[in-house]
Amino acid sequence: MKLIEGHRPIIPAEGIPVWDVDPYDETILRNPYDYYAHLRELGDVVYIPRYSVLAVGRYATTHKVFSDHEHFVSSRGVGLNDFALGKPWRQPSIILEVDPPEHTRTRKVMARVLSPKIMKTLSNLFLDIAEQVVDDIISKGSIEVVSELAEVYPTSVFPKAVGMKDVNARYLVDYGAMVFNGTGPDNEIRRHSMAEAGQIVPWITSACARERLTGDGLGAMIYEAADNGDITHDEAAMLVRSFLSAGVDTTVTGIGSALWCLSQNPQEWEKLKADPGLCRPAFEEVLRYTSPVHTFCRTAGCDTQIGEFPVAEGSKVLCVLGAANMDPEKWGDPENFRIDRRPVGHVASNVDTHGIVV
Predict the structure, then answer these.
(1) pLDDT in tens, 209-249
(2) Does the reported pTM lie above 0.85?
Protein backbone atom coordinates (compact mmCIF):
# COMPACT_ATOMS: atom_id res chain seq x y z
CA MET A 1 0.00 0.00 0.00
CA LYS A 2 1.40 3.37 -0.99
CA LEU A 3 1.62 5.86 1.87
CA ILE A 4 2.18 9.61 1.87
CA GLU A 5 4.09 10.77 4.98
CA GLY A 6 2.93 7.64 6.79
CA HIS A 7 -0.79 7.76 5.98
CA ARG A 8 -3.07 6.56 3.20
CA PRO A 9 -3.63 9.02 0.35
CA ILE A 10 -7.23 10.09 0.04
CA ILE A 11 -9.55 11.03 -2.78
CA PRO A 12 -11.39 14.20 -1.73
CA ALA A 13 -15.13 14.42 -2.18
CA GLU A 14 -16.37 16.38 -5.17
CA GLY A 15 -16.70 20.06 -4.37
CA ILE A 16 -13.93 20.28 -1.76
CA PRO A 17 -11.56 23.11 -2.77
CA VAL A 18 -8.04 22.03 -3.72
CA TRP A 19 -5.06 24.16 -2.66
CA ASP A 20 -1.49 23.27 -3.61
CA VAL A 21 0.27 24.68 -0.57
CA ASP A 22 2.87 23.40 1.89
CA PRO A 23 1.66 24.29 5.41
CA TYR A 24 5.04 23.22 6.80
CA ASP A 25 7.10 25.49 4.56
CA GLU A 26 9.45 27.58 6.68
CA THR A 27 8.26 30.82 5.06
CA ILE A 28 4.67 30.07 6.09
CA LEU A 29 5.71 29.00 9.58
CA ARG A 30 7.54 32.29 10.08
CA ASN A 31 4.55 34.37 8.98
CA PRO A 32 1.42 32.20 8.70
CA TYR A 33 -1.32 34.83 8.71
CA ASP A 34 -1.90 35.00 4.94
CA TYR A 35 -2.01 31.20 4.88
CA TYR A 36 -4.55 31.18 7.70
CA ALA A 37 -6.74 33.75 5.95
CA HIS A 38 -6.74 32.00 2.58
CA LEU A 39 -7.48 28.63 4.16
CA ARG A 40 -10.58 30.09 5.83
CA GLU A 41 -11.64 31.86 2.62
CA LEU A 42 -11.59 28.61 0.65
CA GLY A 43 -14.23 26.95 2.80
CA ASP A 44 -14.99 24.70 5.74
CA VAL A 45 -12.63 22.01 4.49
CA VAL A 46 -9.81 22.11 1.94
CA TYR A 47 -7.81 19.35 0.22
CA ILE A 48 -4.01 19.76 0.19
CA PRO A 49 -2.59 17.39 -2.47
CA ARG A 50 1.07 17.75 -1.42
CA TYR A 51 0.36 15.60 1.64
CA SER A 52 -3.01 14.18 0.56
CA VAL A 53 -4.75 15.58 3.63
CA LEU A 54 -7.81 17.62 4.43
CA ALA A 55 -7.41 20.88 6.33
CA VAL A 56 -9.84 22.94 8.40
CA GLY A 57 -9.23 26.48 9.61
CA ARG A 58 -12.56 28.16 10.29
CA TYR A 59 -13.15 28.36 14.03
CA ALA A 60 -16.49 26.55 14.23
CA THR A 61 -15.39 23.68 11.98
CA THR A 62 -11.94 23.35 13.52
CA HIS A 63 -13.26 23.32 17.06
CA LYS A 64 -15.83 20.66 16.15
CA VAL A 65 -13.39 18.33 14.38
CA PHE A 66 -10.66 18.83 16.96
CA SER A 67 -12.90 17.87 19.88
CA ASP A 68 -15.00 15.13 18.23
CA HIS A 69 -13.15 12.03 19.43
CA GLU A 70 -15.96 9.74 18.30
CA HIS A 71 -15.34 10.48 14.61
CA PHE A 72 -11.89 12.09 14.51
CA VAL A 73 -9.44 10.26 16.73
CA SER A 74 -6.15 11.23 18.34
CA SER A 75 -5.05 7.64 18.91
CA ARG A 76 -3.85 7.26 15.32
CA GLY A 77 -1.41 10.13 15.81
CA VAL A 78 -1.66 13.91 16.05
CA GLY A 79 0.83 14.24 13.20
CA LEU A 80 0.85 13.09 9.59
CA ASN A 81 1.73 9.46 10.43
CA ASP A 82 -1.16 7.07 10.92
CA PHE A 83 -0.25 4.85 13.86
CA ALA A 84 -2.68 2.20 12.60
CA LEU A 85 -0.45 1.69 9.56
CA GLY A 86 3.07 1.86 10.97
CA LYS A 87 5.17 2.09 14.10
CA PRO A 88 5.80 5.67 15.29
CA TRP A 89 9.34 6.87 16.06
CA ARG A 90 8.44 7.03 19.76
CA GLN A 91 5.76 5.60 21.99
CA PRO A 92 2.47 7.41 21.40
CA SER A 93 1.67 9.97 24.06
CA ILE A 94 -0.91 8.70 26.55
CA ILE A 95 -2.11 12.29 26.97
CA LEU A 96 -2.22 13.61 23.39
CA GLU A 97 -2.54 10.42 21.37
CA VAL A 98 -5.24 8.43 23.10
CA ASP A 99 -9.03 8.61 23.10
CA PRO A 100 -11.67 8.04 25.78
CA PRO A 101 -12.20 5.89 27.73
CA GLU A 102 -8.45 5.15 27.97
CA HIS A 103 -7.71 8.85 28.03
CA THR A 104 -9.97 9.38 31.03
CA ARG A 105 -7.83 7.13 33.22
CA THR A 106 -4.59 9.04 32.65
CA ARG A 107 -6.40 12.35 32.68
CA LYS A 108 -7.60 11.71 36.23
CA VAL A 109 -4.04 11.12 37.39
CA MET A 110 -2.73 14.30 35.76
CA ALA A 111 -5.67 16.35 36.99
CA ARG A 112 -4.97 15.21 40.54
CA VAL A 113 -1.24 15.95 40.30
CA LEU A 114 -1.87 19.36 38.71
CA SER A 115 -4.75 20.34 41.00
CA PRO A 116 -4.98 23.93 42.28
CA LYS A 117 -4.08 22.68 45.76
CA ILE A 118 -0.84 21.10 44.56
CA MET A 119 0.00 24.08 42.36
CA LYS A 120 -0.42 26.39 45.34
CA THR A 121 2.29 24.46 47.20
CA LEU A 122 4.64 25.18 44.28
CA SER A 123 3.83 28.87 43.99
CA ASN A 124 6.79 29.99 46.12
CA LEU A 125 9.15 27.92 43.95
CA PHE A 126 7.74 29.47 40.77
CA LEU A 127 7.97 32.98 42.24
CA ASP A 128 11.48 32.57 43.67
CA ILE A 129 12.91 31.35 40.38
CA ALA A 130 11.10 34.09 38.46
CA GLU A 131 12.65 36.70 40.74
CA GLN A 132 16.11 35.18 40.26
CA VAL A 133 15.72 35.24 36.49
CA VAL A 134 14.49 38.84 36.52
CA ASP A 135 17.37 39.91 38.80
CA ASP A 136 19.83 38.36 36.34
CA ILE A 137 18.18 40.18 33.45
CA ILE A 138 18.32 43.53 35.24
CA SER A 139 22.01 43.04 36.02
CA LYS A 140 22.74 42.40 32.33
CA GLY A 141 20.83 45.42 31.05
CA SER A 142 19.86 43.83 27.75
CA ILE A 143 19.26 40.23 26.71
CA GLU A 144 18.19 37.95 23.88
CA VAL A 145 14.74 37.23 25.26
CA VAL A 146 14.25 33.70 23.94
CA SER A 147 17.55 32.11 24.95
CA GLU A 148 18.08 34.19 28.11
CA LEU A 149 14.52 34.36 29.46
CA ALA A 150 11.90 32.28 27.64
CA GLU A 151 14.12 29.18 27.74
CA VAL A 152 15.79 29.85 31.08
CA TYR A 153 12.68 30.11 33.25
CA PRO A 154 10.88 26.86 32.29
CA THR A 155 14.10 24.84 32.22
CA SER A 156 14.78 26.09 35.74
CA VAL A 157 11.25 25.57 37.10
CA PHE A 158 10.11 22.30 35.50
CA PRO A 159 12.98 20.08 36.70
CA LYS A 160 12.60 21.29 40.28
CA ALA A 161 8.81 20.93 40.24
CA VAL A 162 9.04 17.44 38.75
CA GLY A 163 11.82 16.50 41.15
CA MET A 164 14.54 15.75 38.60
CA LYS A 165 18.04 15.17 39.91
CA ASP A 166 19.59 15.47 36.45
CA VAL A 167 19.19 18.69 34.48
CA ASN A 168 20.35 19.58 30.97
CA ALA A 169 18.60 22.76 29.85
CA ARG A 170 19.60 22.34 26.19
CA TYR A 171 18.26 18.81 26.04
CA LEU A 172 14.99 19.87 27.66
CA VAL A 173 14.37 22.57 25.04
CA ASP A 174 15.47 20.41 22.12
CA TYR A 175 13.37 17.45 23.29
CA GLY A 176 10.19 19.52 23.16
CA ALA A 177 11.04 20.81 19.69
CA MET A 178 11.78 17.25 18.59
CA VAL A 179 8.41 15.94 19.77
CA PHE A 180 6.40 18.69 18.11
CA ASN A 181 8.41 18.82 14.87
CA GLY A 182 8.12 15.05 14.75
CA THR A 183 4.42 15.46 13.95
CA GLY A 184 5.26 17.13 10.65
CA PRO A 185 6.57 15.84 7.32
CA ASP A 186 10.06 14.53 6.66
CA ASN A 187 11.47 17.93 5.77
CA GLU A 188 14.60 19.80 6.80
CA ILE A 189 12.96 21.18 9.94
CA ARG A 190 12.06 17.70 11.18
CA ARG A 191 15.41 16.19 10.23
CA HIS A 192 17.28 18.97 12.04
CA SER A 193 15.20 18.44 15.20
CA MET A 194 15.70 14.66 15.08
CA ALA A 195 19.46 14.84 14.48
CA GLU A 196 20.31 14.56 18.19
CA ALA A 197 17.57 12.08 19.08
CA GLY A 198 20.14 9.35 19.72
CA GLN A 199 21.58 11.35 22.60
CA ILE A 200 18.57 13.26 23.87
CA VAL A 201 15.90 10.55 24.06
CA PRO A 202 17.95 8.11 26.19
CA TRP A 203 18.94 10.98 28.49
CA ILE A 204 15.31 12.08 28.93
CA THR A 205 14.22 8.48 29.58
CA SER A 206 16.92 8.00 32.21
CA ALA A 207 16.33 11.39 33.87
CA CYS A 208 12.61 10.65 34.28
CA ALA A 209 13.12 7.18 35.77
CA ARG A 210 11.85 6.83 39.31
CA GLU A 211 15.28 6.33 40.83
CA ARG A 212 16.44 9.62 39.33
CA LEU A 213 13.64 11.64 40.92
CA THR A 214 13.29 13.08 44.40
CA GLY A 215 10.47 11.83 46.60
CA ASP A 216 8.66 15.14 46.89
CA GLY A 217 8.04 16.31 43.30
CA LEU A 218 5.27 15.92 40.76
CA GLY A 219 7.08 12.95 39.27
CA ALA A 220 6.98 11.06 42.56
CA MET A 221 3.24 11.71 42.79
CA ILE A 222 2.72 10.15 39.37
CA TYR A 223 4.70 7.06 40.32
CA GLU A 224 2.64 6.82 43.52
CA ALA A 225 -0.46 6.66 41.31
CA ALA A 226 1.12 3.66 39.64
CA ASP A 227 1.76 2.07 43.05
CA ASN A 228 -1.94 2.52 43.77
CA GLY A 229 -2.90 0.78 40.52
CA ASP A 230 -4.36 3.85 38.80
CA ILE A 231 -1.87 3.49 35.93
CA THR A 232 1.00 1.15 35.11
CA HIS A 233 4.58 2.01 36.01
CA ASP A 234 5.46 2.26 32.30
CA GLU A 235 2.62 4.76 31.89
CA ALA A 236 3.91 6.70 34.89
CA ALA A 237 7.29 7.12 33.20
CA MET A 238 5.55 8.38 30.06
CA LEU A 239 3.48 10.90 32.02
CA VAL A 240 6.58 12.26 33.71
CA ARG A 241 8.21 12.70 30.30
CA SER A 242 5.11 14.55 29.09
CA PHE A 243 5.95 17.38 31.50
CA LEU A 244 9.16 17.87 29.55
CA SER A 245 7.77 17.54 26.03
CA ALA A 246 4.46 19.41 25.99
CA GLY A 247 5.21 21.43 29.12
CA VAL A 248 8.62 22.94 28.41
CA ASP A 249 8.13 23.60 24.70
CA THR A 250 4.79 25.38 24.97
CA THR A 251 5.96 27.40 27.98
CA VAL A 252 9.07 28.59 26.16
CA THR A 253 6.94 29.56 23.18
CA GLY A 254 4.29 31.20 25.35
CA ILE A 255 6.76 33.39 27.23
CA GLY A 256 8.63 34.35 24.08
CA SER A 257 5.38 35.17 22.30
CA ALA A 258 4.15 37.26 25.23
CA LEU A 259 7.28 39.39 25.17
CA TRP A 260 7.02 39.81 21.40
CA CYS A 261 3.33 40.76 21.53
CA LEU A 262 3.87 43.36 24.25
CA SER A 263 6.93 44.81 22.50
CA GLN A 264 4.91 45.20 19.29
CA ASN A 265 1.93 46.70 21.13
CA PRO A 266 3.37 49.15 23.67
CA GLN A 267 -0.07 50.57 24.48
CA GLU A 268 -1.10 47.13 25.74
CA TRP A 269 2.05 46.94 27.84
CA GLU A 270 1.09 50.25 29.43
CA LYS A 271 -2.39 48.86 30.18
CA LEU A 272 -0.86 45.82 31.84
CA LYS A 273 1.47 47.90 34.00
CA ALA A 274 -1.47 50.05 35.05
CA ASP A 275 -3.62 47.01 35.87
CA PRO A 276 -1.63 43.83 36.71
CA GLY A 277 -4.99 42.09 37.22
CA LEU A 278 -5.10 41.77 33.43
CA CYS A 279 -2.15 39.38 33.49
CA ARG A 280 -4.26 36.22 33.04
CA PRO A 281 -6.44 37.48 30.16
CA ALA A 282 -3.34 39.07 28.62
CA PHE A 283 -1.60 35.71 28.48
CA GLU A 284 -4.71 34.03 27.07
CA GLU A 285 -4.75 36.68 24.35
CA VAL A 286 -1.08 35.93 23.61
CA LEU A 287 -1.97 32.26 23.14
CA ARG A 288 -4.88 33.10 20.85
CA TYR A 289 -2.90 35.61 18.83
CA THR A 290 0.25 33.52 18.33
CA SER A 291 -1.00 29.91 18.72
CA PRO A 292 2.05 28.06 20.13
CA VAL A 293 0.84 24.93 18.35
CA HIS A 294 0.35 25.75 14.66
CA THR A 295 -1.43 22.53 13.63
CA PHE A 296 -2.47 19.20 15.09
CA CYS A 297 -3.92 16.34 13.08
CA ARG A 298 -6.88 14.10 13.67
CA THR A 299 -7.67 10.89 11.77
CA ALA A 300 -11.16 9.95 10.65
CA GLY A 301 -11.84 6.83 12.70
CA CYS A 302 -14.83 5.93 10.54
CA ASP A 303 -16.62 7.17 7.46
CA THR A 304 -17.98 10.54 8.52
CA GLN A 305 -18.29 14.08 7.19
CA ILE A 306 -17.11 17.63 7.65
CA GLY A 307 -19.87 20.08 6.96
CA GLU A 308 -21.68 18.82 3.86
CA PHE A 309 -18.73 16.79 2.57
CA PRO A 310 -18.17 13.05 3.17
CA VAL A 311 -14.84 12.06 4.70
CA ALA A 312 -13.52 8.51 4.35
CA GLU A 313 -12.18 6.48 7.26
CA GLY A 314 -8.43 6.90 7.57
CA SER A 315 -8.37 10.45 6.20
CA LYS A 316 -5.85 12.70 7.91
CA VAL A 317 -7.29 16.10 8.82
CA LEU A 318 -5.09 19.09 9.64
CA CYS A 319 -6.75 21.11 12.37
CA VAL A 320 -5.10 24.46 11.79
CA LEU A 321 -5.47 25.92 15.26
CA GLY A 322 -3.73 29.16 14.37
CA ALA A 323 -6.26 29.86 11.62
CA ALA A 324 -9.18 29.17 13.95
CA ASN A 325 -7.75 31.55 16.53
CA MET A 326 -7.64 34.30 13.89
CA ASP A 327 -11.14 33.76 12.49
CA PRO A 328 -13.02 37.10 12.38
CA GLU A 329 -16.33 35.20 12.49
CA LYS A 330 -15.42 34.24 16.04
CA TRP A 331 -13.27 37.11 17.27
CA GLY A 332 -14.44 40.18 15.33
CA ASP A 333 -11.05 41.88 15.11
CA PRO A 334 -8.58 39.01 15.54
CA GLU A 335 -5.68 40.91 14.01
CA ASN A 336 -5.74 43.34 16.94
CA PHE A 337 -3.86 42.25 20.07
CA ARG A 338 -5.96 43.34 23.05
CA ILE A 339 -5.08 42.20 26.57
CA ASP A 340 -8.62 42.84 27.81
CA ARG A 341 -10.24 40.66 25.10
CA ARG A 342 -10.70 37.61 27.40
CA PRO A 343 -10.70 35.14 24.48
CA VAL A 344 -12.78 32.36 25.99
CA GLY A 345 -12.79 29.31 23.74
CA HIS A 346 -9.52 29.81 21.89
CA VAL A 347 -7.89 26.56 20.78
CA ALA A 348 -4.25 27.43 21.46
CA SER A 349 -3.53 25.87 24.85
CA ASN A 350 -6.29 23.24 24.89
CA VAL A 351 -4.03 20.89 22.98
CA ASP A 352 -5.58 18.05 24.92
CA THR A 353 -9.22 18.68 24.14
CA HIS A 354 -10.39 15.92 26.43
CA GLY A 355 -9.62 17.94 29.51
CA ILE A 356 -5.95 18.47 30.31
CA VAL A 357 -4.47 21.82 29.33
CA VAL A 358 -0.85 21.44 28.35
Answers:
(1) 999 999 999 999 999 999 999 999 999 999 999 888 878 98
(2) yes
pLDDT digits (tens, 9 = 90+) for 271-293: 999 999 999 999 999 999 999 88
304-334 confidence digits (pLDDT tens): 999 999 999 999 999 999 999 999 999 999 9
**The 3-state secondary structure of the chain, one letter per residue:** CCCECCECCCCCCCCCCECCCCCCCHHHHHCCHHHHHHHHHHCCCEEECCCCEEEECCHHHHHHHHHCCCCEECCCCCCCCCCCCCCCCCCCCCCCCCCCCHHHHHHHHHHHHCCHHHHHHCHHHHHHHHHHHHHHHHHHCCCCHHHHHHCHHHHHHHHHHHCECCCCHHHHHHHHHHHHHCCCCCCHHHHHHHCCHHHHHHHHHHHCCHHHECCCCHHHHHHHHHHCCCCCHHHHHHHHHHHHHHHHHHHHHHHHHHHHHHHHCHHHHHHHHHCHHHHHHHHHHHHHHHCCCCCEEEEECCCEEECCEEECCCCEEEECHHHHCCCHHHHCCCCCCCCCCCCCCCCCCCCCCCCCCC
Fold of 26-331: Cytochrome p450 (1.10.630)
**Residues of 56-81 as b/e, b for ≥16 C-beta within 10 angstroms?**
bbbbebbbbbbeebebbbbbbbbbbb
Residues whose CB is less than 8 angstroms from the CB of residue 220 and which lie 6 or more positions away in sequence, other chains included? 163, 210, 213, 214
**pLDDT at residue 124 tops 80:** yes
